[in-house]
């Protein structure tokens, strides 16, 4: 019997992201929707929103992400021992997206691949990542690598929520000796039962959303997960009274980037509550006696801590928002697009040896704060992702055409014996697309040429 040596520095060895070739400009969408200027661009903090028509579904998008990743990084399918998908975009209540991805493994002859779909709103990708890292870190590990696929097609019905949509898939290679080593067991988790965002209607892609409750739930989750993480830092790392100063970068799940600004300010508020006499909080002493529950809806307090934390936010979190601002919400993939943005925006000299903390939130709710330590050069990953260039290569679509495409998706959701009408010519090279749905709901896919 072969004994596998215990893995060290388990974490993310490589990452790539997929997003559609078309977007709608949020300023133009404001004008089209007849809302006040800045409602989407300033109020939500969004610039552009990616979307797809009836040619792409969650399976095709995940196939695109995985195949492109394997080709870019020259990874063999035979080297993968675990594949787990985190998504809430469901086109089948039984058959997992992971099983569709096994089509890509056929040529390699590798069918011995553990893992399955993991689902809970925007948190499923984080849970899939934990599972993959813990597999490599365990006695069950067989020496091969793991793939984590996380992402969604985020669409909303017409109205105030639609501009907070988006679409994107992250593909992550997990293994030992990783440039981004997961800091076991530095993790704080918070979970509770709440109806803030959920999808009970199987006949629709659209969620049921309680907007104000969702914002409050996000902030509450920040409080509890961050406190649990700091407790681990104190006990395991021996750091006395840990705070934001012990985190070099902080990546957030981003439903829209203005929420990330508020989330970061909440970290500062928590530091204030732990050490109210600290000099950095001299200007917010009036909030010392505000109750925590009251603080969740106190807009004056919120604005004060946004101002107090502005400098730290610019340094620790602003570099993580490139994708979120220009693509929109990717649900389970969102926090990993933030990580990809950071790797693209910060040089290895800036990242070397640094701690990158992530806050992952999924409605319902599930949340965790966890961290990676940069252990090796990230330059090749940044070059491979090539995020800014790829974002700039997309095509802009008018709000009227975007609206027509959203109507098409709504009308054809769960269609039977259906052939999509969207043009394949608009897709990026190497994109998988839906060819047809037959009389038994079986889906057939093709791929656009690479050149």
Structural summary, described in words:
This protein is an alpha/beta fold. It has one domain (11-447): Peroxisomal Thiolase, Chain A, domain 1 (3-Layer(aba) Sandwich). The chain contains 15 helices and 16 strands. Helix 5 crosses helix 6 (257-274), helix 6 (257-274) crosses helix 8 and helix 11 (334-345) packs across helix 13 (379-385). The protein is globular, with a radius of gyration of 21 Å. 47% of the residues are buried. It comes from Coemansia erecta. Pfam families: HMG_CoA_synt_C, HMG_CoA_synt_N. Belongs to the thiolase-like superfamily. HMG-CoA synthase family. The active site is at residues 88, 122, 253.
- CATH homologous superfamily - what is it? Thiolase/Chalcone synthase
Rounded to the nearest angstrom, the distance between the terminal CA atoms is 46 Å
Radius of gyration computed on alpha carbons: 21 Å
- Regions with little confidence, pLDDT below 50 for 5+ residues: none
The oligomeric state is single chain
Catalytic activity: acetoacetyl-CoA + acetyl-CoA + H2O = (3S)-3-hydroxy-3-methylglutaryl-CoA + CoA + H(+)
Function: Catalyzes the condensation of acetyl-CoA with acetoacetyl-CoA to form HMG-CoA.
Active site: 88 (proton donor/acceptor), 122 (acyl-thioester intermediate), 253 (proton donor/acceptor)
Binding site for CoA: 214, 258, 262
């Amino acid at each position: 019997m072969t004994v596998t040596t215990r893995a060290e520095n388990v974490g993310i060895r490589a990452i790539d992201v997929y997003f559609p070739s078309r977007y709608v400009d949020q300023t133009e969408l404001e004008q089209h929707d007849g809302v006040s200027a800045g409602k989407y661009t300033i109020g939500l903090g969004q610039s552009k929103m990616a979307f797809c028509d009836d040619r792409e579904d969650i399976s095709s998008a995940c196939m695109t992400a995985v195949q492109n990743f394997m080709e870019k990084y020259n990874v063999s399918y035979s080297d993968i021992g675990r594949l787990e998908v985190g998504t809430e975009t469901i086109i089948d209540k039984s058959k997992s997206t992971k099983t569709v991805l096994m089509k890509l493994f056929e040529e390699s002859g590798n069918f011995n691949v553990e893992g399955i779909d993991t689902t809970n709103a925007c948190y499923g990708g984080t849970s899939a990542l934990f599972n993959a890292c813990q597999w490599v870190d365990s006695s069950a590990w067989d020496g091969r690598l793991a793939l984590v696929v996380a992402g969604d097609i985020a669409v909303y019905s017409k109205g105030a929520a639609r501009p907070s949509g988006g679409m994107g898939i992250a593909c992550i290679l997990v293994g030992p000796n990783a440039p981004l080593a997961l800091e076991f067991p530095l993790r704080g988790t918070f979970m509770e039962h709440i109806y803030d965002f959920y999808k009970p209607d199987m006949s629709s892609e659209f969620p049921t959303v309680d907007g104000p409750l969702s914002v409050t739930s996000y902030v509450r989750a920040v409080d509890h997960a961050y406190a649990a993480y700091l407790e681990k830092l104190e006990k395991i790392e021996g750091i006395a009274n840990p705070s934001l100063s012990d985190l070099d970068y902080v990546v957030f799940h981003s439903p829209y980037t203005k929420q990330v600004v508020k989330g970061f300010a909440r970290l500062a508020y928590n530091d204030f509550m732990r050490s109210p006499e600290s000099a950095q909080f001299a200007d917010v002493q009036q909030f010392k006696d505000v109750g925590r529950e009251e603080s969740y809806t106190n807009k004056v307090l919120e604005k004060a801590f946004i101002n107090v934390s502005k400098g730290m936010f610019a340094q620790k979190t602003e570099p993580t928002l490139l994708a979120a601002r220009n693509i929109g919400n990717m649900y389970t993939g969102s926090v990993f697009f933030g990580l990809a943005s950071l790797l693209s925006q910060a040089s290895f000299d800036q990242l070397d040896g640094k701690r990158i903390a992530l806050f992952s939130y999924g409605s319902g709710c599930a949340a965790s704060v966890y961290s990676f330590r940069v252990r090796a050069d990230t330059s090749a990953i940044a070059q491979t992702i090539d995020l800014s260039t790829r974002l700039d290569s997309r095509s802009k679509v008018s709000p009227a055409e975007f609206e027509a495409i959203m109507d098409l998706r709504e009308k054809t959701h769960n269609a039977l014996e259906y052939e999509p009408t969207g043009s394949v010519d608009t897709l990026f090279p190497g994109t998988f697309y839906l060819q047809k749905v037959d009389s038994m709901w079986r889906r057939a896919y093709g791929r656009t040429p690479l050149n």
